[in-house]
Amino acid sequence: MKVAVVNCGSSSIKYEVFSLPDLVMLAAGLIEKIGGSEGCLRQRKRKADGTFEEQSHVKPLADHHEGFELMASVNREDRIIKDDSELFGIGHRVVHGGEMFREPAVIDHEIVAAIRRLIPLAPLHNPSNLLGIEAARARFPGVTQAAVFDTAFHHTLPPHVFHYAVPSAWYADYHVRKYGFHGTSHFYVSREAAKHLGKEPEKVNLITLHLGNGASAAAVRGGASVDTSMGLTPLEGLVMGTRSGDVDPALHFYLMRQTGMSADELEKSLNSQSGLKGVCGLNDMREIIDQAERGDTHAALALDMFCYRVKKYIGAYMAVVGRVDALVFTGGIGENSATVRSRVCGGLKHMGILVDEERNVTCSGSVAGIHEEGAPVKILVIKTDEEREIARQTIHAIKKAGL
Ligand code: AMP
Fold first, then answer.
1. What is the rounded average pLDDT of the residues 53-78?
2. What is the Cα–Cα distance from 342 to 397, expressed in whole angstroms?
């Protein structure tokens, strides 16, 4: 049997196929330009010797249903999923689960309706996730499907953390609170860290840093999320590729009055024209570090701001968590940039955070320690694997539902 994990955007489907029971990844693909005449599927397929073979197909794709049809036919030809009956389940990444979804849910009409009701809270993400769910249910009607929510890991935030200091009716009437995102990644690396440290998952205290194009930090006490940097939406917190992270809330009213920008325009600017890109025009951390090293002052400022904001959250979460077993770096930047890791951890010796620079530069593998020998706080670089975690949670949810 196989399980497929899908993450749908408005014109894309990202997917991975795993074999059961060992969760070996058999294929990983990306379908893009759905809705256009040059739809494209690119897939990496595992060969018998464990290496991967790349393949691509270009054809017009009218909608996500046709995207799933292409995915099914390519995988049928490659004998990865011989027919639909070989699929134990399909797991969908859903960004916002609100307060309702504390764990994965097997999808039925009511779950679809509940995800739809959450659209006002996540207008940029949940509509595409729903589009994918509906198209996959139509294309694979006999296959059980589950939704795995990015917010779920943070359902353990205590009230004094998740409430904003605003009129309480806003929470009661409009569900205004901190939800947190990247939960599947924070959960996955927390469990991997506990394994590496030889601790029970529910006994581990961590600060997990998911640093990618989107970025967030989580304070993990006893294996549970007790604070996280993203909030009502993924805009709050760290400086990101194109998102501002924390700003003074009064900035919005000031700019709307000064420029005549509408709420929608401002939302777009803060989500897609801000962050690293807003400061220096680039949002790829590799290019930013390169430009900063060549003396570009805007790139240097963007890098300084990114690292400073992460450091500030570490300080805050050290205070929140108390005894911290490990600081965990993950995400494209966290896993790959020794420069960022070194800058983020620099000057934190008084907190027990000491990087071994040689280990920092040479680290590799799925879990690596980069702390100085004997340092009180371990520093781990862990490759996140949200798809594998979604696959695992999908299987668990389907079995729990007795399906
Ligand atoms: P993600 O969203 O997790 O895929 O991460 C994307 C980010 O990771 C981009 O900003 C990339 O520039 C960054 N990234 C990937 N590899 C490296 C690297 N070797 N050094 C610095 N940043 C990297």
1. 93
2. 39
Q: Which residues are catalytic?
A: 150
C-alpha span between 23 and 175 (Å, rounded):
37
Domain residue extents for the chain: 2-149, 189-386
Chain centroid offset of residue 30 CA? 17
3-state SS, residue 324:
coil
**pLDDT for the residue 36:** 85
| Digit-coded pLDDT (tens) for 104-139 | 999 999 999 999 999 999 988 899 999 999 999 999
Mean pLDDT calculated for residue range 284-305: 98
**Is the distance from the beta carbon of residue 393 to the nearest atom of ligand 1 less than 6 Å?**
no
Cβ 327 vs Cβ 314: under 8 Å: yes
The closest alpha carbon to 19, from 81, 67, 74, 68, belongs to 81
Q: How far is the CA of 283 from the centre of ligand 1 (A)?
A: 9
Residues 21-40 have pLDDT tens digits of: 999 999 999 999 999 889 99
Task: Evaluate whether 10 touches 127 at the Cβ level (below 8 Å).
Answer: yes
| Ligand 1 pocket check for 337: Cβ under 6 Å | yes
Q: Could you identify the atom of ligand 1 that is nearest to the CA of residue 276?
A: 10
Q: Does domain 2-149 have CATH number 3.30.2380.10?
A: no
Residue 284 CB–ligand 1 contact under 6 Å: yes
The answer to whether the CB of 330 is under 6 A from ligand 1 is: no
8 A C-beta contact, residue 193 and residue 382 = yes
For 316-374, the pLDDT digits (tens) are 999 999 999 999 999 999 999 999 999 999 999 999 999 999 999 999 999 999 999 99
pTM of the predicted model as reported, rounded to 2 decimal places? 0.96
Identify the CA nearest to 2 among candidates 118, 87, 67: 87
Q: Which residue has the tokens 């935030």?
A: 157
* Structural element, H or E, at residue 126: helix 126-139
Hey, which residues does 368 pair with through a beta bridge? 381
The correct CATH number of 189-386 out of 3.30.420.40, 3.20.20.140, 3.40.50.300, 3.30.450.20 is 3.30.420.40
Q: What separation in Å is there between the alpha carbon of 287 and the centre of ligand 1?
A: 10
Checking if the pLDDT of 91 tops 90, the result is yes
